[in-house]
Specification:
Elements (H helix, E strand, L loop, with lengths): L1 H31 L13 E10 L10 E8 L2 E9 L5 E8 L3 E7 L6 E6 L4 E8 L56
Parallel strand pairs: 1-7
Antiparallel strand pairs: 1-4, 2-3, 2-5, 5-6
Length: 187
Amino acid sequence: MVPMQRRFLVRLSFVVAAIGLVVTLLAANAQDAPRRGRKYKSPPPTSRIEVTVLRDVNGKPIENAAVIFHSIEGDRDKGNMELKTNEDGKTVIDVLPIGGKVRLQIIAKGFQTFGEDYQVDKAEMTIEIKMKRPGEQYSIYKKPGATADAGKSSDADKTAPPAKDAAPAEAKPADTAKPQPTQPPSK
């Protein structure tokens, strides 16, 4: 009886080993099959853009200026990212994809707002912006080439007539008027 049990156990172990081998091969083959889930898509290469904001007059840096990057796709704005300049007037961004278009807008207190479109075509870009002081405001009431007091009329020096409801002003007597200069007698 012992040899009969031994044969049974040997045969059983061969069958279990064969089943294990088949299961292992099927599992390995299943890993090569195409997945139905979401595939990983690597992000596009990005560019490192350094923007320096300086005064136009003396070239000194402007601290705390708002540097706004508007990503543009076609003619649509895809969103924006705002950074502030440091004490050297610099700010750096490194998340804009190469090959894209970006609208750069800079707002600094006491300076004209700057805006311009740039093509992001290099891995590293350096942009230097010189900010100007605001110019004179335009007015439809001023004539071109007029001075600052051009808006005043020639009647501004005259006194306005009293209102109907106002109390009448006291009239000055005629004899208190200024005397006329007399001419010296001729000889």
